[in-house]
Amino acid sequence: MREIAASVISDQVAGMCREANIYLGEDVFNALKESLETEESPTGKEVLKQLIENVEIAKNEQIPICQDTGFAVFFVKWGQEVHLTGGSLEDAIHEGVRRGYTEGYLRKSIVADPLYKRKNTGDNTPAVIYTDLVPGDKVTIAFAPKGGGSENMSTVRMLNPSDGEAGVIDFVVNHVKAAGPNPCPPIVVGVGIGGTFDKVALLAKKALFRSVGSKNPDEAFAALEKKILSKINDLGVGPQGFGGRTFALAVHIETFPSHIASMAAAVNINCHASRHLEREL
Fold it and tell me: Structure pTM?
């Protein structure tokens, strides 16, 4: 049995909070640069140049890519042969977020009461944490600072099985069209299909943790990702909503088995600063 101290988890999480908010992942940065080469609109090209410049300024000056440093969202794969010492996993992650956001001078955006008092917690906690127990003696922590603007553009729809592929395409494309410039495009579109009402939303969120441009391992769903991406970019919304073909950088679909009477579908959108970071301990 391998042991990991809770303090090690906190240290890693604190560093991840700072790093993910300052350095845009190479997958997203490369997608932005590739879009600059293919964008047809002069205005769209100019907007993409500014977004790329913003990424470089954040890195060089060690400041956040975006003022909205997000809700701290974690997916943890915990090896069943690992024993955590010195505290609980949730407390360790919360402590890491508290330190990372405070020491990194990152904006704290979380209010304790979602409806009435809406008082800021002051340290960006609590985090949202999903944990899977997996074989082995490794721990993998994936983190994403999820901004409010893009998160507000999320939705779940309980489709009918008879709606088929066309129904899924219409649902996703029409929802993204309605979102328009609100999620700060070019966007990454996470799509969940299958499972229950709650599971499908989780699938859409998890899809945003994939490397931008990666393909679903199932050929049919990989083809569907490509088809939906093309239809979204054909809308002409373009970077930041100023027109052009670069409305989305990628569409990622995650699936789960479905009840015979159901076909749940969900959309979760990330902005052009599609920040995500993963560490293995």
Answer: 0.95
